[in-house]
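Q: A reviewer asked whether we had any structural model of the full assembly, not just the individual parts. We don't, so I'm hoping you can provide one. Inputs are below.
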Amino acid sequence: MKNNPSLQERVALITGGSRGIGRAIALKLSAVGAYAIVNYAKNLAAAEETLTLIRKQGGNGEVVPFDVADAEGTRKLIADMISRKGRIDILVNNAGTSADGLLVRMKDEDWESVIRTNLTGTYNCCRAVAYSMMKRRWGRIINITSVVAESGNAGQVNYSASKAGIIGLTKSLARELGPRNICVNAVAPGFIVTDMTKSLPEEVREQIKEQIPLAKLGTPEDVAGIVAFLATEEAAYITGQVIHVNGGLYM
Ligand code: NAP
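A: Here is a predicted structure for the entire assembly that you could use as a starting point for your response.
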């Protein structure tokens, strides 16, 4: 499979693949040949819609529910997948949540739930796939962080801390797993049109647009393209990096 630009015969797990950026990533990976395992937390209908879209474009995959914040459940389900499919070659840690609020008013449970899903969830999935990737001496782990991990954002101390933690995890894991031919990278989207950002008031969207050199919000597909590239053989010498996809919002 050396120098294979497609992902034929690769098995990919995309957490939070039911909607938004995760759905676009699942579709893109499957479009270039990967078997796409679409994880979701609650929204079975949306996950099944992703799978239908995958099949419509000639790909294949399955849907698997688990809460990435639940260490035991995540490990068990991922171990089952690995024994059933023989491997997980590509892990995309995309599942994420937010619960915004200024620090002085933040509820402790909003701090904890965001850290647990975004950061501990990423750790749980990496922990569950790493050994099998090490044995096979091939793997790609792509962690979805955020522009606010580096820029900061008022009202998002929990979210930006979770996403900054993902960058530290990514770089450390890239060092640990590099000798086993496993690349670990992070992709940092800016403002992307999904359910997560659709509640932003129109005037806030306009203010954000004014700060973006490309003068528009991004689409899930803008993120999916670079994720798929990082999964290919052509990206074999890229590890420990944070790739920004933000229209120039943060440089
Ligand atoms: P979204 O539309 O809100 O979708 C979130 C996805 O994550 C859903 O598939 C959801 O599953 C899943 N999910 C949430 N909690 C989960 C859990 N505990 N276990 C498993 N799955 C869980 O979000 P999005 O905008 O596509 O964001 C995707 C990723 O990109 C997130 O990590 C987000 O932080 C990051 N990001 C987004 C933006 C943006 O502007 N949109 C910018 C920077 C970074 P269900 O469908 O079952 O609920």
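A: Points you may want to mention in the reply: Strands lie at 11-14, 35-40, 60-65, 90-93, 139-144, 182-189, 242-245. The mean pLDDT is 96.
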